[in-house]
Write a structure and sequence with these properties.
Blueprint: E1 2-10, H1 14-22, H2 34-38, E2 42-47, H3 71-76, E3 81-83, H4 93-106, E4 110-112, H5 118-123, E5 125-129, E6 132-140, H6 160-171, E7 176-182, H7 193-204, E8 209-213, E9 221-224, E10 227-230, E11 235-237, E12 248-257, E13 260-272, E14 275-278
Parallel strand pairs: 1-2, 1-11, 2-3, 3-4, 6-7, 7-8, 8-10
Antiparallel strand pairs: 1-12, 5-6, 9-10, 12-13, 13-14
């Protein structure tokens, strides 16, 4: 059996970064959840904040920048692959896209959804575990919250027809395909029609798992066409402490026997401060 875990939105800027600096521990946000994630054969999250070594720290607002040392949390948790295709992908401009890819690669973490070129992003990545090849692709509804007037072709935007082609091509060099989808209405517990259409199309095209994020709250899970759709896993590491539902999330689990999806489940997560832990580990 090969076990994959999927976490939700990870934002390492703003108050998350401030809390880590106060403790002189860049990995602080992951300390409680790291053993669980690291035990997986493959661990995946959505990286909501680009890394960048230039410019001042970001303390507030909706434009994110993770300080380079904050990558220590991802490495502590054994994260193998992240989606960098989301509405904050271009928060640090073109250089932020490039630096994030370079920094992740230097630390042994694969990135999907962005690439050195459009072709590289469309190719996805393949990770092999015990002879089984898992292919990953990622897409976002938007690149930069409307903060740029142009489009960066290196950041993959949701296009159902294109995604079907990418999945078919990736299937030719992998045994199972996972698609990451950054979409949906923020704070809505119900997936929208665009999420449903795109996710189901991915499974119809041959993917086994769709891992969704962006709403910042958990949404339902659907078994479909022999695969599973985690419509929204909610937050994993985030500083949205203004409402209870943004402090709860899910970690999706998919278990494969060879290339076949054998089973799936979810693990509830509770965020205390900015630090997630398994909800069933709560004592109060």
């Amino acid at each position: 059996m090969i076990r994959l875990l999927f976490g939700g939105d990870v934002m390492l800027s703003r108050h998350v970064g401030r809390m880590a600096r106060a403790r002189k521990d860049p990995a602080y946000p992951f300390r409680r959840i790291a053993p669980f994630l690291a035990a997986a054969d493959i661990a995946f999250v959505n990286l909501e904040s680009p890394f960048c070594g230039r410019g001042g720290r970001i303390e507030q607002g909706m434009v994110f920048k993770a300080e380079p040392e904050m990558i220590q949390g991802l490495t502590l948790a054994g994260v193998d692959v992240v989606s960098t295709a989301n509405n904050h992908a271009r928060d640090r401009g073109a250089r932020g896209v490039e630096f994030t890819l370079e920094w992740l690669e230097r630390h042994g973490i694969e990135a999907v959804g962005t690439g050195a070129s459009r072709a590289a992003a469309e190719n996805g990545v393949v990770l092999e575990r015990r002879g089984v090849r898992f292919g990953f692709l990622a897409y976002t509804y938007d690149q930069a919250n409307g903060n740029h007037q142009d489009t960066d072709e290196r950041v993959l935007v949701m296009d159902t027809a294109a995604m079907r082609r990418h999945v078919a091509r990736l299937k030719a060099r992998s045994d199972a395909v996972i698609v990451s989808m950054h979409a949906g209405a923020e704070y809505s517990e119900t997936p929208g029609s665009r999420q449903v259409e795109f996710a189901r199309a991915a499974l119809e095209a041959g993917a086994s798992v769709v891992a969704g994020h962006h709403p910042h709250v958990a949404q339902p899970v659907e078994a479909y066409a022999g695969g599973v759709i985690f419509y929204s896993l909610g937050n994993l590491v985030f500083d949205q402490m203004h409402r209870p539902d943004t402090q709860r999330g899910l970690i999706g689990e998919a278990v494969f026997r060879g290339a076949k999806l054998e089973s799936w489940r979810t693990h509830p997560v509770r965020i205390r401060g900015v630090v997630p832990e398994l909800a069933d580990a709560e004592t109060t």
